[in-house]
Amino acid sequence: MCVGPGKWTAGVFAFGFQGYLSPALLDTFTLHRSPLREDRPELFSLVADFDICHLFISAGHNYFGRHEKPPGEHAIIEVERIQCVTAKGIEGDRFFGFKKRYKGQITFFEEEVYQDLCLRFGVWDRRPEAFRRNVITRGVRLNELIGKEFELQGIRFFGNEECRPCYWMDLAFAPGAEGALKGRGGLRAEILSDGFLTRSASTSQEAEDSRIQEFKKQRFAGGF
After folding, report:
1. What are the tens digits of pLDDT across the range 127-138?
2. Cβ(84)–Cβ(90) below 8 Å
């Protein structure tokens, strides 16, 4: 499991090197689109190594475009894998084919942030799908992927920007959630190649339930 930038490996295997590259050097590989980048994209992607805890899709919008209206009632569905389609989004999701070069074709959110909010607000009856992000991660700081191309399970993505929280989060999770999420609302990304993302084997429902129970025990024992 990888947490910091020193644990990413740049896709430069053709040059006989695999290991740590400084953030400054990584920027030279990841921040510029060039003819070589387009012809040999495998040389320029960060190979990500983190867990996928949950995968979610929804056929319709509950909050997007509904300012001053009641929230929608479209269910968000947890799935074992999602199909990523280049430049379009996730098959079956509400933003699929939304518009050209849309920055939020897929969204990521850290499980660690979700757990922190549960602790902060004493909320134990909301699951991570409340935030309506597609991919719930563990073991990565998503803000470090902003402005970078990265590869996960063989699929290439480009991290565009933070998935900034909105006032709906106070309703979806708890009052104050919007403010607590500022600067850590997740990642909006474009999909650069086709493929399937699959939930990590280490994140079975039984394992997740066990982690939640342990998290609660430590919280009430003063372990946090």
Report:
1. 999 898 999 999
2. yes
The Cα 112–Cα 18 span in angstroms is 28
Count of Cβ atoms closer than 10 Å to residue 162 Cβ: 17
d(CA 196, CA 189): 15
Domain count, the chain: 1
Q: Nearest Cα to 184, choosing from 207, 170, 199, 164?
A: 164
| Residue 197 located in a structural domain | yes
Report the predicted TM-score, pTM, of the whole model to 2 decimal places. Answer: 0.72
3-state secondary structure of 166: coil
193 CB-contact burial (10 Å; exposed 0-12 / middle 13-18 / buried 19+): middle
- Angle at CA 141, nearest 5°, toward 101 and 215? 125
pLDDT in tens, 62-88: 566 555 567 656 678 899 999 999 999
β 106-110/187-191 pair status: antiparallel
Q: What is the CATH number of the domain that holds 155?
A: 2.40.33.20
- The verdict on residue 8 lying in a domain is no
